[in-house]
Design brief:
heterodimer; A: 253 residues; alpha/beta; 25% strand; globular; B: 226 residues; mainly alpha; 8 helices
Chain lengths: 253, 226
Amino acid sequence: MNTKEQPDVILKAEDIHKSYGETKILDGISFEVERGECIIIAGPSGTGKSTLLRCINHLVPPETGRIWFNGKEVARKNVNEIRQKMSMVFQDFALFDHLTVLSNVTIGLIKGKNMDKIAAREIASEKLTDVGLDRWMNVYPGELSGGQKQRVGIARALAMEPELILFDEPTSALDPELIGEVLEIMKKLAQRQMTMMVVTHEMGFARSAGDRMFFMEGGKILESGPITQMFSNPREKRTGEFLHKLEELYGKG
Amino acid sequence: MGEINFLYHTVLPPLIKGTIVSLELIVASAPIGLLVGILSAVGRVYGRPGIRHLCLLHQIIFRGIPLLVQLFILFYVLAAWGLRLTPFFCAITAFSICSGAYHAEYIRGAINSIAATQVMAARSLAMSKWQAIVFIVLPQALRKAIPSCSNEITYLIKYSSLAYMVTVPELMTEAKVLTSRYFKPIEIFIMAGVIYWVLVTFASRLINAFEKKMEIPGLKLTQKQL
């Protein structure tokens, strides 16, 4: 979606490999993401989509291959600096159950970014208002619905004021009627030109909010391209089959 | 009536005096033991290989050797080598380290039950590994470990009686002295037993109340979810 002459590359990955024991998970992944893009990552389960996201912010360090974020190579010694600008939303929400909703959002700011409590609180309440949970700040995650939990997860990611957000199947643990409220918020973020990488099977969301898609299989990006082209005219037969299967299952949105 | 009078006026006061010493032992060793357990568990789960092996060794040795032997080693063997420790200090040291070895396993189990994404989420928010452990993992794991650790604390109350073997003037020591003086072992040991029972019951109640207080709203840790 970038209209500038010079593409503004926020993230670049080069030949990422990762195995768990004997099992090869990522088998040479390379790509570039421009600032403001919403990348959809789709593919069958077990193809390394989640691992790819985790490699990008070094939660799972890749074995070989290099990643640059804002022109800086991501390495062991600067991960905390990188993570201050790159946040993540988890499939199982990964909220901190022992902390209130507000503390869930402020803790990253206070501990990870060394921000003082008052400033952190201000940002947190702003982000919680953004996701419609300003009235739920003092309850605990265990008292929320799944959709509300994931909205807290998104608020927590947003509070870091990131330049890139990684979404790891953010709606696949939700009941069908709760998916919408989460996708709405994600669509809004995409409209505001937030750079996002989203692992999802929600093809309706992909069509309406996504700019490009990476179709992964067997630890590789089998095909990538603009969303509309991926649906209407995929280069690989496998891509078309898979995406149409997803649309049958999840609807076209 | 004379019998009850005798027990009340002659036997009970020394037993109470001993109980106070027992309580001193327990109140000192329980928190130190818990701290040792937390450190040993965290070291074993998250430490570098050297630390991990050290913590494993702590658990293997102090769960593997009878506490009485540990006490004797501290008291007699170290004394023979010229390191003379007071009985009270020996008892607290042995109790804390041994208790910590058991706590460590309970706490390690609780740590392992915390979802891996909890640490990932903390790390993704630019928290360091140690911040993630201290602020995210331990507050949740320790809550889960309360019921098992309470078990260990009730054991500690009872095995504090072993301190009598290294001449600490605690409840069991007083009971022993009284029986050799008055030849009424049944009455005196029953009284000592009742006092231990009261201490254990009181401690269990206290820990249950604490567990309730630490309960997180919306997460029913202690209630059966049926």
